Amino acid sequence: MPILNRVAELQHEVSEWRRHLHTNPEILYDVEETAAFVEQKLREFGVDEIVTGIGRTGVVGVIRGQGSGRAIGLRADMDALPIQELSGKAWSSKTPGKMHACGHDGHTAMLLGAAKHLAETRNFRGSVIVIFQPAEEGGAGALAMVQDGLMERFGIEEVYGMHNMPGMPVGTFAIRKGGIMAAPDKFTITVKGRGGHAAEPHHTIDPIAIGAQIVGNLQLIASRNANPLRSVVVSVTRFQAGTTHNIIPEEAMLGGTVRSLDEAVRDLAENRIREVAKGVAAAHGADVIVDYERACPVTVNHPDETMHAARAAIDIVGGQNVDTEVDPSMAGEDFAFMLQARPGAYIMIGNGKTAGLHHPAYDFNDEAIAYGVSYWVRLAEQRLTE
Ligand SMILES: [Zn+2]
Ligand SMILES: [Zn+2]
């Protein structure tokens, strides 16, 4: 594994960057300091072209190889989460209420490591486009970059993404063709009844009793409406109503999420939520407002690019350490927007036995750095020398 050995020399430096980013988390599009750090590093590496402000605070670097050829995009996300850190690490967040709980500090540092190596060695033709995006966590930063002309401007023909996965051993990768991450949608249902004295329910239209019926009926979408071979999750995660024990309130509000791996199932779930909420409310004389909000699409790996990504991973860690038919995750990922714009693939890299993603005790595992950097380098060289 020659690349892995060469990249191992970068491990220390990359982990320093990673810890610096971890200490200084920024949220959504407000990643100015992180973007400035990325820009400065790309300049130090002698990257040929650096463009900032794509998708508001995204940064793109172009590394040209020896001779003309195709262009492929490698993408990392830069944003942190609004969580109070409890990792206890020496490099913990210095900003109360913000932390890198999804490992985007590691993703950014690994792509910087790959950029450094590729800018030094340039063992390829054409261009490697390194993409650092803001607002992955619910801000559609990938879409903002695509809408800003990311793909056309740099002539990107294929695009690849990577995410760390707690629970998968360090030095392993996992991928699948087709849907690998779900479409994470949100819904809010407001039941409008008629309030009154709790001792006189016959003079009221009780939005709590009706809301409870709606919660029960929504369970039938996954169990009775959707094809059992096409997964969907419908979770009601909020139910807010009322102020005290002797008042039936005017309104109840239910909220939750729908996760699907297939656009047809997604449409079915949205339609059923609307029909069930309206039908149950009508049966009991209440009004209902359903607000269904689609976030990012299903993250769909394209077949050929999935194979290229798997080959690069196998070159680094061997076939026994690459799962090419991993179960999809019902979490969402806005890299989905980039995969709608260009063919590509999204791979998972083992983070070892750490706390889970979005947990306050989570920390990116620096042991994974050499594997992640090597994967990026191998993938770029493989796609741009054949
Ligand atoms: Zn996340
Ligand atoms: Zn993430």
From TrEMBL:
GO biological process: diaminopimelate biosynthetic process
Cofactor requirement: Mn(2+)
Superkingdom: Bacteria
Entry-linked InterPro entries: Amidohydrolase (IPR017439), Bact_exopeptidase_dim_dom (IPR036264), Peptidase_M20 (IPR002933), Peptidase_M20_dimer (IPR011650)
Annotated CDD domains: M20_Acy1-like (cd05666)
Binding site for Mn(2+): C102, H104, E137, H163, H358
Keywords of the record: Hydrolase, Manganese, Metal-binding
Pfam families per the UniProt record, alphabetical: M20_dimer, Peptidase_M20
GO MF entry, a single one: N-acetyldiaminopimelate deacetylase activity
Domain Peptidase M20 dimerisation: 187-280
Record's cofactor remark: The Mn(2+) ion enhances activity.
NCBIfam families assigned: amidohydrolases (TIGR01891)
Name of the featured protein: Hippurate hydrolase
Organism: Ciceribacter lividus
